[in-house]
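Supplementary Note 2. Why include the ligand at all?

Several targets in our set were suspected to adopt different conformations when bound, so apo predictions alone were not considered sufficient. For every target with a known small-molecule partner we therefore ran a joint prediction. The input for adenosine-5'-triphosphate is given below.
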Amino acid sequence: MPNDVVTMDKIVSLCKRRGFIFPASEIYGGIANTYDYGHYGVLLKQNVVAQWWKAMIGDRDDIVALDSAIIQHPKTWEASGHLAGFTDPLVDCRTCKQRFRADHLAELECGRRPSKHPGEDAQCDLTESREFNLMFETTIGPVKEAGATVYLRPETAQGIFLDFKQVLQFARRKPPFGIAQVGKSFRNEITPSRFVFRTLEFEQMEMEFFVPPDEAPKWYAHWLEERLDWYVRLGIDPERLRLRAHDPDELSHYSSGTSDVEYRFPFGWSELEGVANRGDFDLRAHAEHSGEKLEYVDPQGGERYIPHVIEPAAGVARSLLAFLCDGYDEDEIGGEPRTVLRLHPALAPVKVAVLPLLRKDGHPERARAVYEGLRKTLAAEYDEGGAIGRRYRRQDEIGTPFAVTIDHQTLEDATVTLRDRDTLEQERVSVDGLARLLQDRLAVD
Ligand code: ATP
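The joint prediction is reproduced in C-alpha cell form.
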C-alpha cells in the first residue's frame, strides 16, 4: 500500500522536533550532508544495528564478527580498485561557481535563480566533466608534506578481506562462512543529500560470505531472499520493497551480479542495500598486492581454492530512514489530529512509557515504583509533565508501543491502564506480572 500521508518534510520536521536527527554544526550554519543523532535517534540506530547483528550472528552460526580499522594501509585501496576507480564524474559552473555530479544534472538545481537544471540557462558555463575520487585523504605524521597519505575507508568490506586469513585461523571455520562488520565509512559526496540518505560519513552493516566457487550462485540467491525478508520481518510493507538487478553496464568492476534492495521513499524508489556476487576479485587482488596467499586449504584432503564472496552491504541510516517513513502515520483521536510512528516494537527507542495521571495524590511515587520495576528489563521512560493527552501524543510521535498510566485506582487495587499505540485500546491490568505481559507482547518473531 502506498503511504500517502508521509512526506520528507514531515519526517525531517518530526526528527528535529523530537530530537532524533538534526543538522550537524548548526550553530555555525551547518555543514552539507552531515547530521547529528539525538537521544531517540541514537536508541533507534542502536536497535537497527542490534537487529542486523541478531540476523547475522544471533540466529545463525556460520558468521563471525569483526571490527577492523578505519585507516588501513594505503595499498589496500590500490588493490581494491578504489584509488583508480572510486570516482564520480563532476562538472563545475564557471558562472555560479558550483560543482555538480555530471550524471545527476537532470535532478539538480542550477545555482542561479530562477532555478533551472545546471547547464540549461543561457548564462550557465559548465566545464567538461572530470572524474573526482570520493575517498577522503589525510596524512599520518606531523608534517603534511613528509607524511604518508592515507584514506578514510569508503566501505568497511576491505578490512574484512585484509583479515580473511586471521579469521580463518582463529574462528576455525571453512567455507561457507561469513565475516560481519558494522562501522563508519566516509565518502566525499557532493550531491545534495535527501536528509540522511546520502551523507559524508555513515555507518555500514556489511557481511562478506566466503563460499566454494561452485556454490556462489546458490548463496547469492539465499542472501537476496534473506536480506529482503529482514526488512519485512521488521515491519516494512512488502509493497514498498523490491529487488532490482543491476544492468550489465551498471555492475561494479568486481561484480558478476548485483541486486539492490530498494524502498519506495517519498522521493521515489532508492537503494537501501546492495547484494553483490564479488567472485574472487578481492581476495585475489589483495593476494597479488600483498604477496600473502589468501585461500582456503582443506587440512585433510589438501583441497585448495580462493573462495568466492557474496556481500550484503547495507547502510544504517538508509534503513532507519525507511523504518521512519514506513512507520509514519496520521490519524485522529476524539477529533484531534495525531502523528504516530508505528515502529516495530524491536526498533522502538522506548518500549513503554510510565505516566502518573496527576502530579499529586501519591501518583508520581507509585508511578516511579512501577517504572523502576519495568526499566530493569525494558527500555522504559517516566514522564509526569503536562496533560495526559499531550504525554500520550509525545510517546506516539517517538513510536512507543505501550503506555502505562497510574491513577487513584492503582493506589487501591494495584492495577494500571495499559494503552496500545496502534489499536488505542486501554485495558486494566495488574502491576504484578506487567513486565512479563509487556515482554510477551513485545517479543520479536
Ligand atoms: P549509491 O549508489 O546510492 O551511492 P552505492 O551503490 O555506492 O550507493 P554501496 O557502495 O553499495 O552504495 O554501499 C552499500 C550501502 O551503504 C548502500 O546501499 C547504502 O545503504 C550505504 N551508503 C553508501 N553510501 C552512502 C552515503 N553516502 N550515505 C549513507 N549511506 C550510504
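Residues 155, 187, 189, 198-199, 202, 204, 271-274, 313-315, 317-318 surround adenosine-5'-triphosphate (CB under 6 Å). The chain has a mean pLDDT of 94. Comparable summaries for the other entries are listed in the accompanying table.
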